């Protein structure tokens, strides 16, 4: 006979009371998941609770059982929808109970047993579901990402002495910078996530109490270990922390020669992550070189704090000397990047600059990212043909170098050969040094600012060091013991070796040509300096200081970075994704520019997998086989055809996550994780048997009803109010569909639902929008355009139908701003953009004095960067007396080529633009010239300008 609910309620009340009393002194909070029930008991309770709900009984008598029931549902949370699955598992819930009532049970639990309180921005936005998900400790959806972040942070955790929950939580969040947005929001609860970390690692116990109830912790660990990758990451993290905390003296660093140990040195202060770009030269022909700036992976900066991670993910940047073009947000986060420099920057110029200010990042960049001072720069040509900068401006006999200078280099040296450098503002000479450099040649090199090093050589021995420039600079990992070889070609009595500022260690010299090897112990992350001083034989003591040779090796040490899923395993494929970390919605809707470079004549296979709730597979298909290289336009067209197929479009609506894969056989493989973004107020769409259901979900728990509207596809400017109660219960979407819009305070969501169930033939699939009722006010019209453009998509043909509406509305916008004559000229242009005749457009500008010709000749400046392009356009408008306000000129370019997100601009801008039609026509003409220049996307309606 099953136990009655009253008995279960009493049992759990006693269990949580006893657990709360035992934790009172330690102060650890309580989680509802710490109920101690097994699967059979949970099923029995769940069945009885559902029966109680069906019978209409009063639920408050068993409030604690409902807390446990809801928490178990939270443990199965899929990252997108909580209430959908909850209601499917709990019949009659919506009709008889509310999320607010459930939240009241959790607050009662918190007061009675010192339960954990959800915190952070996510908890503020998702006020109802934040309680059951937080009390689930670590829902299954987060477990893989948690284990990976814990593994990434393990070395840093190992160096922390008695970490607090908050400190551990902050560290975990910093190492989850590339996790899903939803998981990062979860980690805003720093103390909560920190307690999970310490419990998983067996740390942080106090007063005989653990952070998490032992059976519950065993359950979490078992579930993690059952997921192969998560289990491996967890085991590795536990091993690293155990070894470092209990098996090593964390303050120890040092060096040794052979078996003899040398004095240990204290670690140097840990500096900011290495973000210094490198300068490289590569041959562009047999007689010329191009300059390449290589930026490092900024993931180390992202790990410093969640705020820096968010800043880097959402802020564009520019590189010095590359033309000022804005690079996509997140560009520097995912792998080292290279760009060709066209102009040599001034001394001290910042090598990488971000669009928005950030005091912490600016402080890091100020010390690491300044362009090196001249007046000359020395690059040594390596065996791979690349020339790398030598910071010390030194050269060695028998090697080739490229010397750069701001002024022409005049020299009579026989081994100097002129060369061409494809970079404005700098000159170059190639030096092919002989095996022996004569005294007068050395003197000549000194006059140029180049030092010839004497022949004691120090080099990294053993492991292959990273970024070794051959002259004393390289990168090591904190898990490696750096080793060096020292060799000389003349008699050396002894070497004096020093690490950082510790006392010198004396090493006896050997015969000329016989190397000595020095091994250092493990070093903590940071910058370390190894000094080597050679004392020559046969010199008087008084002259020794003048004759000793001394050099330094700079060791930049960092923790190892785990391999990132999604990176190529072979340099045969170069994949560009913009934005680099898209959501599943953005990817499926075609809002991601993807291109793939690789050997011509080879092909790759692109495929996508979609999974639904609880990881159930929904779709796994090849998108197609592509010949390399793949342009952004080719990808967009093929993928659009793939997603427009009706069965795939409907399956996508059921997906929570996805995975995009590019397979190139021996060229490598690229994988991209895709996850849906959950909003506090959102529309969800589900295909039913013969209809499409749309439903509003509001997790904000606000008192005021959500403001909801509907815009039909056939009348996209007509806003029809919807009843919030009906929308929350679910409604059948009208054919052929429309835009559903919801606003609750600062939260909003727009969803374009498209359906073709009633179409009898191909012609009925095309829905021509009527713009009756479209706003005449420019700012209001632009807001309507932004609403349609930014809406999410659901259903087949949603993308093409939305694009048609957006084009029609933009055409109306430019008609209103530029006049009907201009509108006819644009129509003629878009009828054949690849062979367009601009004469009609130039006449329609109604500009005099050759202004239109100037715009045609120099419009490419906008392709090089909007900052420089705006300056050029404002100068041209000023010279031809079109407009003398540079700010208004920049606004006109945005309005003509990148109008979205302008709705927050002051109304005065729109009024000024409407009163200066020649300026808007000129800006639009520049935009059309840029569109005509595209070869990879000839049917675009707007240029690819980034503001």
Description:
With 947 residues, this protein is α+β, with helices and mostly antiparallel strands. The protein has eight domains: 5-135, no CATH class; 141-247, no CATH class; 278-368, no CATH class; 376-452, no CATH class; 456-558, Immunoglobulins (Immunoglobulin-like, Sandwich), CATH 2.60.40.10; 574-675; 681-809, no CATH class; 819-932, no CATH class. It has 33 helices and 37 strands. Strands 3, 4, 6, 8, 9, 11, 12, 13 and 14 form a nine-stranded mixed β-sheet that branches. It has a five-stranded antiparallel β-sheet with strand order 2-1-21-18-16, with no helix packed on it. It has a five-stranded mixed β-sheet with strand order 17-23-22-19-20, with no helix packed on it. Helix 3 packs across helix 6. It is flat, with a radius of gyration of 33 Å. It starts with a helix and ends in a 15-residue tail after the last helix.
Mean pLDDT across every amino acid position: 83
Using DSSP, what is the number of strands? 37
Number of domains: 8
| Residue windows where pLDDT falls under 50 for at least 5 positions | 245-270, 538-547
Secondary structural class: alpha+beta
Estimated helix fraction: 25-40%
Give the end-to-end Cα distance, rounded to a whole number of Å.
69 Å
Radius of gyration: 33 Å
Total number of helices: 33
Which percent range describes the beta-strand content?
Answer: 15-25%
Major β-sheet profile = 9 strands, mixed
Q: Label the overall shape.
A: flat
What's a quick, concise take on this entry?
With 947 residues, the protein is an alpha+beta fold. It has eight domains: 5-135, no CATH class; 141-247, no CATH class; 278-368, no CATH class; 376-452, no CATH class; 456-558, Immunoglobulins (Immunoglobulin-like, Sandwich), CATH 2.60.40.10; 574-675; 681-809, no CATH class; 819-932, no CATH class.
């Amino acid at each position: 006979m099953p136990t009655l609910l009253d008995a279960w309620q009493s049992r759990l009340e006693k269990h949580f009371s006893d657990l709360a009393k035992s934790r009172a002194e330690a102060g650890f909070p309580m989680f509802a998941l710490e109920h101690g029930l097994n699967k059979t008991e949970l099923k029995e309770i769940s069945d009885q609770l559902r029966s109680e709900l069906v019978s209409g009984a009063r639920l408050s008598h068993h409030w604690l059982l409902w807390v446990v029931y809801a928490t178990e549902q939270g443990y199965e949370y899929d990252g997108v929808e909580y209430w959908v699955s909850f209601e499917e598992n709990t019949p009659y819930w919506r009709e008889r109970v509310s999320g607010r009532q459930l939240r009241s049970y959790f607050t009662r639990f918190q007061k009675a047993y010192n339960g954990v309180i959800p915190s952070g921005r996510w908890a503020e936005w998702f006020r109802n579901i934040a309680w059951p998900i937080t009390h689930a400790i670590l829902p299954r959806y987060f477990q893989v990402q948690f284990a990976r972040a814990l593994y990434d942070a393990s070395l840093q955790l190992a160096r922390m002495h008695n970490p607090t929950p908050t400190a551990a939580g902050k560290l975990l969040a910093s190492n989850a910078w590339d996790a899903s947005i939803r998981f990062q929001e979860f980690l805003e609860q720093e103390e909560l996530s920190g307690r999970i970390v310490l419990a998983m690692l067996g740390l942080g116990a106090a007063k005989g109490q653990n952070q998490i109830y032992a059976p519950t912790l065993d359950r979490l660990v078992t579930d993690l270990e059952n997921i192969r990758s998560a289990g491996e990451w967890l085991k590795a993290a536990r091993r690293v922390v155990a070894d470092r905390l209990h098996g090593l003296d964390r303050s120890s660093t040092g060096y040794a020669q052979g078996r003899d140990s040398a004095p240990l040195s204290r670690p140097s202060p840990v500096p900011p992550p290495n973000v210094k770009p490198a300068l490289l030269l590569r041959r562009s022909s047999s007689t010329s070189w191009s300059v390449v700036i290589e930026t490092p992976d900024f993931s180390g900066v992202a790990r410093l704090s969640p705020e820096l991670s968010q800043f880097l993910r959402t802020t564009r940047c520019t590189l010095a000397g590359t033309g000022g073009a804005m690079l996509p947000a997140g560009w520097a986060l995912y792998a080292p990047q290279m760009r060709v420099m066209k102009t040599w920057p001034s001394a001290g110029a910042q090598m990488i600059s971000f669009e928005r200010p950030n005091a912490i990042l600016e402080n890091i960049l100020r010390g690491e990212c300044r362009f090196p001072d001249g007046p000359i720069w020395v690059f040594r040509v390596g065996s791979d043909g690349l020339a790398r900068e030598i910071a010390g401006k030194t050269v060695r006999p028998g090697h080739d170098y490229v010397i750069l200078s701001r002024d022409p280099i005049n020299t009579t040296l026989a081994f100097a050969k002129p060369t061409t450098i494809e970079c404005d503002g700098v000159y170059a000479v190639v030096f092919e040094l002989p095996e022996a450099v004569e005294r007068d040649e050395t003197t000549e090199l000194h006059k140029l600012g180049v030092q010839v090093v004497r022949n004691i050589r120090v080099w990294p021995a053993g492991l292959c060091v990273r970024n070794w420039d051959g002259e004393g600079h390289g990168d090591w990992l904190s898990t490696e013991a750096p080793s060096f070889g020292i060799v000389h070609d003349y008699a050396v009595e002894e070497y004096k070796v020093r690490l950082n500022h510790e006392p010198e260690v004396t090493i006896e010299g050997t015969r000329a040509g016989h190397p000595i090897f020095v091994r250092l112990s493990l070093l903590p992350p940071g910058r370390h300096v190894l000094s080597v001083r050679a004392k020559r034989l046969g010199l008087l003591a008084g002259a020794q200081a003048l004759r000793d040779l001394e050099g330094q090796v700079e060791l930049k040490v960092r923790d190892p970075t785990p391999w990132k899923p999604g990176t190529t395993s072979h340099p045969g494929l170069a994949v560009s994704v913009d934005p680099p970390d898209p959501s599943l919605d953005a990817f499926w809707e075609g809002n991601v520019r993807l291109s793939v470079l690789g050997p011509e004549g080879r092909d790759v296979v692109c495929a996508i997998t979609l999974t639904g709730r609880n990881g159930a597979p929904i779709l796994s298909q090849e998108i197609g086989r592509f010949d390399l290289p793949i342009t952004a336009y080719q990808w967009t067209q093929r993928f659009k055809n793939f997603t427009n197929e009706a069965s795939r479009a409907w399956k996508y609506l059921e997906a929570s996550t996805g995975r995009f894969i590019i397979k190139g056989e021996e060229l490598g493989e690229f994988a991209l994780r895709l996850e849906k973004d959950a909003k506090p107020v959102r529309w969800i769409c589900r295909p039913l048997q013969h209809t499409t259901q749309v439903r509003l979900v509001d997790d904000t728990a606000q008192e005021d009803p959500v403001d909801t509207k509907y815009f039909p596809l056939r009348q996209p400017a007509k806003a029809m109010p919807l009843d919030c109660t009906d929308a929350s219960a679910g409604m059948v979407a009208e054919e052929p569909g429309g835009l559903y819009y919801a606003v609750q305070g600062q939260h909003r969501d727009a969803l374009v639902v498209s359906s073709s169930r009633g179409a009898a033939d191909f012609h009925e699939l095309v829905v021509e929008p009527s713009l009756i009722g479209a706003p005449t006010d420019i700012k209001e019209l632009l807001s309507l355009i932004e609403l349609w453009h930014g809406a999410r998509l659901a259903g087949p043909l949603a993308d093409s139908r939305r694009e048609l509406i957006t084009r029609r509305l933009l055409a109306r916008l430019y008609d209103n701003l530029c006049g009907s004559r201009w509108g006819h000229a644009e129509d003629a242009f878009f009828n054949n953009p690849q062979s367009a005749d601009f004469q009609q457009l130039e006449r329609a500008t109604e500009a005099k004095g050759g202004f239109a010709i100037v715009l045609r000749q120099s419009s490419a400046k906008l392709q090089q960067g909007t900052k420089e392009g705006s300056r050029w356009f404002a100068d041209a408008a000023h010279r031809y007396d079109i407009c003398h306000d540079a700010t208004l000129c920049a606004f006109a370019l945005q309005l003509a080529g990148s109008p979205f997100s302008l709705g927050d601009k002051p109304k005065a801008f729109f009024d000024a633009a409407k009163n200066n039609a020649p300026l808007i026509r000129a800006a639009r003409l520049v935009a059309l010239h840029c569109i005509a220049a595209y070869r990879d996307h000839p049917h675009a309606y707007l240029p690819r300008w980034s503001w």
